[in-house]
Amino acid sequence: MPAFPSDIAFTESVKTIQTQKGSRSQYARMEQGSGWQTKVTEELKAFLSELDMFYLGTASQSGQPYIQYRGGSPGFLKVLDETTLGFADFAGNRQYITLGNLAENPQAFLFLIDYVHRRRVKIWGTARIVEDDPELLAQLHEPTYPARVERAILFAVTAWDINCPQHIHPRLPQAEVLKLVQQLQAENEQLKKEQARLIMQMKSGL
């Protein structure tokens, strides 16, 4: 059994390189201190409630990695209990690479990123497919999101950590950009009306 939750990522080879590069003492202090989390906290739950996308990592039995983008309504990655997350698996291009990987290797990884506020969270664990559970599918389904739910994917959290914001380029979601554009358009129209009024006022004074 690992001595620390972070050992899921900090293998002996990783620790050896950390020692060579001079960062092992820093992470050793982290391990002895608060360390990485193993359960869903209120902080993580709040973060998930705003998230409308994430990246899911799986690997085949031979170790070939695969990363898949997942998108939905804000909060579609749901907290089911203090160690379990779940989300609806929507109909897609029918390659089934993630499903095939999980069928032979349950180890999985979630990379969560908020581009607007430059926040990211890494979650290690295992995942499994649930095909025939109408109650669970109803719990995970988002009626406002236009996609067909085919199954559920449950993610068992082993460890998670908040990553630093360094090198995250801020990006605004389309809805936020449209809101700003509409606001600027409305202000522009108001300025045009005010300009026209002032011109008419000046002409009438001549």
Characterise this structure.
The protein is α+β, with helices and mostly antiparallel strands and 206 residues long. Helices cover 36% and strands 29% of the residues. A hairpin with a 2-residue loop joins strand 3 and strand 4. The mean pLDDT is 90.
Number of strands: 7
Distance between the termini: 90 Å
Shape label: extended
Helix-strand makeup class:
alpha+beta
Low-pLDDT regions = none
Rounded Rg: 24 Å
Which percent bin holds the helix content?
25-40%
Please summarize what this structure is:
Helices cover 36% and strands 29% of the residues. It has helices at 12-21, 24-32, 42-50, 97-104, 134-140, 174-204; strands spanning 53-59, 65-71, 78-81, 84-90, 107-114, 119-130, 149-163.
Tell me the layout of helices and strands.
Layout: H1 12-21, H2 24-32, H3 42-50, E1 53-59, E2 65-71, E3 78-81, E4 84-90, H4 97-104, E5 107-114, E6 119-130, H5 134-140, E7 149-163, H6 174-204
Give short descriptive properties of this protein.
extended, 7 strands, seven-stranded antiparallel beta sheet, alpha+beta, 206 residues, single chain
